[in-house]
From TrEMBL:
Organism placement in taxonomy: Bacteria, Bacillati, Bacillota, Bacilli, Bacillales
Function recorded in the entry: Has nucleoside phosphatase activity towards nucleoside triphosphates and nucleoside diphosphates.
Annotated active site: R25 (proton donor)
InterPro entries on file: DUF402, FomD-like_sf, Ntdp-like, SA1684
Reaction(s) this enzyme catalyzes, per UniProt: a ribonucleoside 5'-diphosphate + H2O = a ribonucleoside 5'-phosphate + phosphate + H(+); a ribonucleoside 5'-triphosphate + H2O = a ribonucleoside 5'-diphosphate + phosphate + H(+)
Keyword Nuclease among record annotations: no
Amino acids binding Mg(2+) 1: N89, D105, D109
E.C. number: 3.6.1.15, 3.6.1.6
UniProt entry keywords in alphabetical sequence: Hydrolase, Magnesium, Metal-binding
Family annotation (PANTHER family): PTHR39159, UPF0374 PROTEIN YGAC
Cofactor(s) this protein cannot do without: Mg(2+)
Family indicated by similarity: Belongs to the Ntdp family.
Protein name as annotated: Nucleoside triphosphate/diphosphate phosphatase
Binding positions (Mg(2+) 2): D107, D109, D122, E125
Amino acid sequence: MTTKYPREGEIIQIQSYKHNGSIHRIWKETLVLKGTSNYIIAANDRTVVTESDGRTWITREPAICFFHAKHWFNIIGMIREDGVYYYCNLSSPFVWDQEALKYIDYDLDIKVFPSMTYNLLDEDEYERHRQEMNYPAVIDRILKNNVQKLVSWIQQRKGPFAPDFIDMWYEKFLSYRS
């Protein structure tokens, strides 16, 4: 049976888990702009986010989300007054199970500024969770390799970092809201 992927225009939920299977974070509503077996591009703005402890908050700005079925990261382009900021999560490739888009968050993050400078974040949290949850050595290697792949994408302005990527998908997002 072929897996159906969310259709363009469909509202989906995004669920982030930790390696031990516990829920990490849930984004209530995200609009699918393109869905294929390899990737999903989606957008949200002022969506409710529920943390693992039940606390909720609302996103502050429009965001274009890029999830890939083969890469161990996802990329969120946040559209702010002074430019696009990217938040990149080192994570498992996404899965879609008709209920939600799901992935495992592996703590390491890269924040990219409009100038395309970037910072690797949460290395201490990653190290703590790697030991607490016994990440296999193969996962550790995959994630560290994907940090390098992500840095290469940033430097080459590849994928969501390409100059017009976020603008193009944001325009499409706005067309659904009019």
